[in-house]
Write a structure and sequence with these properties.
Low-confidence stretches: none
Structural class: mainly beta
CATH class: Mainly Beta
Radius of gyration: 21 Å
Largest sheet: 6 strands, antiparallel
CATH architecture: 7 Propeller
CATH superfamily: YVTN repeat-like/Quinoprotein amine dehydrogenase
Shape: globular
Strand content: 35-45%
Number of domains: 1
Number of strands: 35
Number of helices: 5
Length: about 475
């Protein structure tokens, strides 16, 4: 008999069903809150993966729960609440799953499967001046109160049609404040919908272009005056989804012979500049992009050799991993006028994910990339990311934390210092598996290999999640 894989310590955080907590003062466990750290950290992710004894089909199916940590001169306050969607409320009342998601079918008889897919609101957040948006790939965001995280309802950004989704990785131009995003809609063909939004969250401009097949597109990158999409050869069979024979996740297949397609868009007109094609790979996330002196686009991306990453993420939700999907950081240089790849090479061969740059450098040259990384020697079939790091694009130097055994940080978030523009902080929510608790750790962005300058206790374990954002105090 083959024994089941042993659950590692991180599984306790993944499988924890969050209760949530009202705004609460956070105690300082070590160090002190920097005087220049003023604003709010927001993080989103699945808060529960089980109801009534039934488990979700994929990590992406968990109900969204948002953590807010507010830093003021008086100290830090934390709040953690579920996104109160109509589907969430119905399932809370029923005490069971009713709706399907990305990786699961609605429970019950076959004729009960033909319900709308639940908007889990669980992937990322976008902070606007007067509201916080909880983002999800397949629909509109939910608007939350910036302080209390109370859900106010669907957000249409002033005029976004209900049929058009708003994806989870918007990009904010640091010079104009304008926000760019996309959403993929599926009909007789797949359509890439493009959006330009004002700094206060009002839709200013939109356009669309057809996609080949029915791909899974999670992120894009800005590079100077361009928006660039790399469309991996993952293709969904829409008939299987429409007939409710398979979930979205199970209906996707890897078709490497079709290659990765490149779509370059002018960010001012939202019109396609060029289309190209290159070797197949899959990516969830980009680090950044910029234009070099020859007006070519230079893009950093975390690449996977294939779509096994989807199975890997499905297994994470069970608390055990059996599939290896190794992501590494690459740089790609393309001619935006032709869509042709001019050069591609690996920057970092350590398994890593969730790359970010300083907010003021989005779409511009950036020396440092902050990311999640596996500890040296980690077994990729058993462990999730156990460290965060800073990669120097100029020298190739990697500076990383060592949080110790059984400590699991989330995606690093960069926070500019409010008093010194040359200084910044990196925040991460850490699950301490030895004590079964979650903490907020604050690092000096230039000294990630030093001890955190501050550690804050959270009232509850925060299940490992996806993405966050920093909003500086006004």
């Amino acid at each position: 008999m083959i024994s089941s894989p042993t659950k590692k310590t991180w599984a306790k955080a993944i499988l924890h069903t969050a209760t949530g907590f009202e705004p609460s003062p956070l105690s300082v466990l070590s160090g002190a809150i920097p005087t220049g750290l003023r604003g709010s950290l927001y993080r989103n992710g699945p808060g529960r993966l089980e109801r009534g004894g039934q488990h979700v089909g994929h990590w992406f199916d968990g109900d969204g729960a948002v953590l807010g940590v507010h830093f003021t001169a008086a100290g830090a306050t934390g709040v953690y609440r579920y996104v109160q969607s109509a589907e969430f409320e119905a399932e809370e009342q029923a005490k069971r799953f009713i709706y399907g998601g990305y990786g699961m079918m609605p429970p019950g008889a076959f004729w009960e499967r033909f319900k709308a897919t639940k908007n889990a609101g669980n992937t990322s957040v976008l902070a606007l001046p007067d509201r916080l948006l909880a983002l999800w790939e397949g629909g509109h965001p939910y608007a939350l109160d910036l302080e209390t995280l109370e859900t106010h309802g669907f957000e249409d950004l002033g005029s976004l049609p209900k049929s058009l989704p708003f994806s989870a990785h918007p990009k904010r131009d640091p010079k104009t404040g304008d926000i760019y995003n996309f959403g993929v809609s599926f009909g007789k063909e797949a359509t890439l919908n493009l959006y330009r939004i004002s700094a206060n969250g009002t839709l200013k401009q939109r356009s669309s272009t057809a996609l080949d097949g029915y791909p899974l597109l999670h992120d894009f990158v800005t590079a100077g005056k361009y928006l660039i999409f790399f469309v991996p050869p993952t293709h969904m069979n829409p008939l299987l989804v429409l007939a409710r024979l398979k979930s979205f996740s199970d209906a996707f297949s890897w078709q490497p012979e079709k290659g990765t397609q490149i779509i370059v868009v002018d960010r001012d007109t939202l019109e396609v500049v060029s289309r190209g094609e290159t070797a197949p790979w899959y990516q969830w996330h980009f680090g950044n992009g910029y234009l070099d002196t020859d007006e070519n686009a230079v893009v950093s991306v975390v690449k996977y050799a294939d779509f096994n990453t989807n199975q890997y993420l499905k297994e994470i939700a069970t608390g055990t991993i059996q599939t290896i999907a190794k992501p590494t950081l690459w740089q790609i240089r393309i001619d935006p006028q032709s869509g042709k790849v001019l050069e591609t090479h690996e920057l970092l061969d350590r398994p890593c994910e969730f790359p970010i740059v300083k907010p003021q450098e989005v779409g511009q040259p950036a020396r440092y990339t902050y990311l999640s990384i596996h500890r040296l020697g980690a077994d990729l079939r058993q462990e999730v990311f156990g460290a965060i790091a800073r990669f120097d694009q100029t020298t190739g130097e990697l500076v990383e934390t060592d949080l110790g055994d059984n400590h699991y940080p989330t995606e690093p978030i960069y926070a500019p210092d409010a008093e010194d523009s040359n200084r910044g902080w990196v925040l991460t929510v850490v699950y301490d598996g030895d004590h079964d608790r979650s903490e907020v750790w604050v690092f000096d962005s230039d000294r990630l290999n030093d001890s955190p300058v501050c550690r804050l206790a959270l009232p509850e374990v925060i299940p490992l999640g996806f993405h966050g954002i920093w909003k500086s105090a006004n």
